[in-house]
Specification:
Keywords: Signal. InterPro entries: WD40/YVTN_repeat-like_dom_sf (IPR015943). This is Ig-like domain repeat protein. The protein is mostly beta strands. The chain contains no helices and 54 strands. Strands 46, 47, 49, 50, 52, 53 and 54 form a seven-stranded mixed β-sheet that branches.
Length: 660
C-alpha cells in the first residue's frame, strides 16, 4: 500500500482523454479539473442549478463547481463536514457537520448557509438520506453508532435520536434512500468486516427495521437503492458490488468490478455506476439496467509520481439527476491532489474500431483494406461504416461510400488508389442510441514513378563575379511542372536561399543566372505529384577570388625575357601590395621564386594577413644579390588561407631584378 500525503498548495492540472458521445447530438469531451480539497466525504449533483457539491471533512468546507469543474463557491465553517443531501426541490443542500454536532442547511441559489440544526452534544452526525419527509442521519462514535432524524415539517425543527436500538452499529452507519420508494431507508456498516446491512420503513415517522443481515462481506464503502427501492447495491471491498433484495436482504446477484469495490451510484433510469479503488485496473464500471457485465469502463490516468494511476475516492460517484448521460466522480493521485471527473454518455458502449491496410501498394492496382468493430454491446452484421480516402489528389478526403459490417464484427473492402504517395483510409461508425461513434484509419505507401531531374555546371570553377546560367531540366511528370532552384553560398553568414520557383518551359527547363562571388551549392527541387516522387539534384560550383599584386620602389621598368621586369638598386627594398577579395581572418600566400640556369626555384613562401579592406603590404628586406631574375605572386588557398568560401586562386607573377 502507498501512503497518500496531505495535498499541498500546488495544483496539478490535467485532462483525461476525450471520449465522444453518440447519436446526432454534438459530442462532449470527458473532462477533469483539480479540486481545492484535502479529502472527500460525499458528492452530490444539483440538476436544477447544474452544480456539483463536494464535501471536504479535513478543511471543513463544501466546494461548489459547475458541470465543467470550475469552482464557483466554497462554503466554509462546516467542521468535519461529510454527508450531503439535496432536498427534493433542489432548493437546499443539507450537510452533516460532524465536529459541530449539527446539520447545516445551504441555500443552493445563493450558496450560503441558511440554517443550522444541532443534533446534540457528541452525536457527530456523518451520513444523510432523505426519506419519509425527514432528513435521516447516521451518527455516533466507535462502538456507539445509531440513526437519527431531523423533522422540519413543523414550526420548530425536531431531532430524534436512537431510532435503531437493535442493530448495534459500531460507528455512524452509511445511509441510502430513493424517491421511488419514499419511505424506505437503508443503512450499512462502514467499519467492521462483518458488515451489517439493514432496511427500514420510515412511513410512521420512526425507523422500523424490516430486514437485517450480518453478511460478513467486508466494510460497506457505499450503498444505494435501485430507483424502485426493490434492491440495495453495496460496495464491500471485494472484486464485485453486491446486490440485495430490499424486502429481506437476501443475496440477489452481483456486479463484477475489480478488487476494493468502494462506490455505488444508481441513475434514475436504473443504470448503475460501480466504483473500485484500483491503481492498475479500471476505476468505474457502468452497468445498464438488468445487465451483469459492464457496458463501459473507465481507467483513470496517472497524474502523480507513483507507478499506479489515480484512484476513485470512497463513495465519490454521482449521476446527473434525471438522466444517465453524465456521471461525476472524484479521484486522487499519489500526491494527494483531488480532481473532479466528468464522464459523458457513460451508459453507451464505446466501440473499438481497427483498420488495417497493406504497408505498400502499386498505384492503379487493387488493394484490400480490412478491420474490426467490436463493442461491449455487440453490433449486428450490416451496420453501416463510412469510408474516406485521403491522398495527394484528394487532400480533404474523398468519400468511398458506405461499407457494411460483416459477421463477427469484421469488414473488408477493395479500392484502386489513383494517386501515389501516402494514402490514408479512414473508417467511421456514426454511433447510435447505445453506442458512441468510432473512427480509425491506416495508411499505405503507394508507389510513384521517379522523375528525371538534372542541373548543369557541377564541379565547374568560375572567375570572381561571373554571371553563371544554371538550367534545371525536368522530365515527364503528371500534373506538377514546378521546380525550385536554391543557392547555398559557402560560409555560415550566407543562408540557403530560394532564388527562383516556377513552371518549366515547353522543353522542361527552368533557368536562373547567379552572380558567383563564393563557392556555392545550387540545388534544383521538384516536390512531386500524385504519380511522380519528389526529387532534388545539386551542383557544387567554385568561385575564385579577385587578387592582384603591385610592386613599388623600382627605379625603372623594362620589357625583357618576355615579361615586364621591375629594376631595383640593391640598396632598395621592394614593396609588394596585394589586393584580394576581403573576408574575415583571410590571409594571402606570398610566393617568391628565383631563376637559375633555365629553371624557376622556390625562394620562400609565407602567409600574410589581409586588412578588413582586403589589402596586404609586404616589404622585401635583407641583402639583395644582383643579376638574378626573380618573381613574386599572391594566392588564395582554400582551407589554408583562413577560410574555405572560395576556390583556390593564383594571382599573376610579377617579375623583378636587382642591380648595382
Amino acid at each position: 500500500m502507498r501512503t497518500l500525503p496531505i495535498a499541498t498548495a500546488f495544483a496539478v492540472a490535467f485532462s483525461s482523454a476525450a471520449l465522444a458521445i453518440g447519436t446526432a447530438t454534438t459530442a462532449s469531451a470527458d473532462s477533469s479539473s483539480v479540486l481545492p480539497v484535502m479529502e472527500t466525504g460525499d458528492l452530490v449533483v444539483d440538476g436544477v442549478h447544474q452544480h456539483v457539491f463536494v464535501s471536504d471533512p479535513r478543511n471543513g468546507k463544501v466546494v461548489v463547481t459547475d458541470y465543467s469543474g470550475r469552482v464557483v463557491k466554497q462554503v466554509t465553517s462546516l467542521a468535519g463536514v461529510t454527508g450531503l443531501q439535496l432536498s427534493a426541490d433542489s432548493g437546499t443542500l443539507y450537510a452533516a457537520a460532524r465536529d459541530d454536532d449539527a446539520i447545516v442547511a445551504i441555500d443552493t441559489a445563493t450558496l450560503t448557509e441558511s440554517a443550522r440544526y444541532a443534533t446534540g452534544a457528541d452525536t457527530e452526525p456523518e451520513y444523510l438520506a432523505a426519506a419519509g419527509n425527514k432528513i435521516w442521519f447516521g451518527y455516533g462514535t466507535s462502538d456507539a453508532g445509531n440513526i437519527g432524524s431531523l423533522d422540519l415539517s413543523g414550526t420548530d425543527p425536531v431531532v430524534t435520536l436512537g431510532q435503531d436500538g437493535v442493530s448495534h452499529w459500531r460507528d455512524a452507519p452509511r445511509l441510502a434512500a430513493t424517491p421511488g420508494a419514499p419511505n424506505a431507508l437503508a443503512a450499512g456498516d462502514r467499519v467492521t468486516s462483518s458488515s451489517l446491512l439493514a432496511v427500514y420503513d420510515v412511513a410512521g415517522g420512526t425507523a422500523a427495521r424490516t430486514a437485517f443481515v450480518d453478511h460478513n462481506q467486508g466494510q460497506t464503502g457505499d450503498l444505494a437503492f435501485t430507483p424502485d427501492g426493490s434492491k440495495v447495491i453495496t460496495a464491500n471491498g471485494g472484486d464485485r458490488n453486491l446486490v440485495w433484495a430490499a424486502s429481506d436482504l437476501s443475496a440477489a446477484g452481483s456486479l463484477p468490478t475489480t478488487h476494493y469495490a468502494n462506490a455505488d451510484a444508481v441513475a434514475d433510469d436504473g443504470t448503475v455506476a460501480a466504483g473500485s479503488f484500483s491503481w492498475y485496473d479500471p476505476d468505474v464500471h457502468v452497468f445498464t439496467p438488468g445487465a451483469t457485465s459492464a457496458v463501459r469502463q473507465y481507467d483513470f490516468p496517472n497524474t502523480g509520481h507513483s507507478s499506479g494511476s489515480d484512484t476513485l475516492a470512497d463513495g465519490a460517484l454521482a449521476w446527473e439527476p434525471g438522466t444517465s448521460s453524465r456521471l461525476f466522480a472524484v479521484s486522487y493521485n499519489s500526491e494527494g491532489v483531488y480532481s473532479l471527473r466528468v464522464m459523458n454518455a457513460p451508459a453507451q458502449s464505446k466501440p473499438t474500431l481497427t483498420v488495417s491496410a497493406p504497408a505498400t501498394a502499386t498505384r492503379a492496382k487493387s488493394l484490400t483494406v480490412s478491420g474490426t468493430l467490436s463493442a461491449t454491446l455487440a453490433l449486428p452484421a450490416g451496420t453501416p461504416l463510412t469510408v474516406t480516402r485521403t491522398d495527394l489528389e484528394s487532400p480533404n478526403g474523398k468519400s468511398l461510400g458506405t461499407k457494411a459490417l460483416g459477421t463477427g464484427g469484421k469488414f473488408s473492402f477493395k479500392d484502386t488508389p489513383p494517386a501515389g504517395g501516402k494514402v490514408k483510409y479512414t473508417v467511421k461508425y456514426a454511433g447510435d442510441a447505445t453506442h458512441t461513434p468510432a473512427s480509425a484509419s491506416d495508411t499505405v505507401e503507394v508507389s510513384r514513378a521517379t522523375p528525371t531531374l538534372t542541373l548543369n555546371n557541377d564541379r565547374k570553377v568560375y572567375a570572381y563575379g561571373t554571371d553563371v546560367k544554371f538550367t534545371a531540366h525536368l522530365g515527364s511528370t503528371y500534373k506538377n511542372r514546378t521546380v525550385e532552384i536554391w543557392a547555398d553560398p559557402f560560409g555560415s553568414d550566407k543562408p540557403n536561399k530560394l532564388v527562383k520557383s516556377g513552371k518549366v518551359n515547353s522543353s522542361g527547363n527552368l533557368t536562373v543566372t547567379l552572380d558567383l562571388t563564393r563557392d556555392a551549392k545550387v540545388t534544383a527541387k521538384f516536390a512531386g505529384d500524385s504519380r511522380y516522387k519528389s526529387k532534388s539534384v545539386s551542383s557544387t560550383v567554385g568561385a575564385k577570388v579577385k587578387v592582384s599584386t603591385a610592386i613599388s620602389g623600382q627605379y625603372k621598368k623594362k620589357s625583357v625575357y618576355g615579361h615586364t621586369y621591375y629594376y631595383f638598386h640593391k640598396s632598395k627594398d621592394p614593396l609588394f601590395t596585394t589586393t584580394m577579395t576581403a573576408y574575415p581572418h583571410r590571409q594571402q600566400r606570398l610566393e617568391m621564386e628565383l631563376y637559375y640556369q633555365g629553371t624557376w626555384y622556390d625562394a620562400g613562401t609565407q602567409y600574410f594577413k589581409l586588412s578588413s579592406a582586403g589589402v596586404s603590404r609586404v616589404q622585401l628586406g635583407g641583402t639583395h644579390e644582383t643579376g638574378y631574375r626573380m618573381r613574386v605572386r599572391s594566392s588564395y588557398y582554400n582551407g589554408t588561407s583562413g577560410d574555405n568560401v572560395n576556390s583556390t586562386t593564383h594571382g599573376d607573377w610579377k617579375y623583378f631584378i636587382f642591380t648595382s
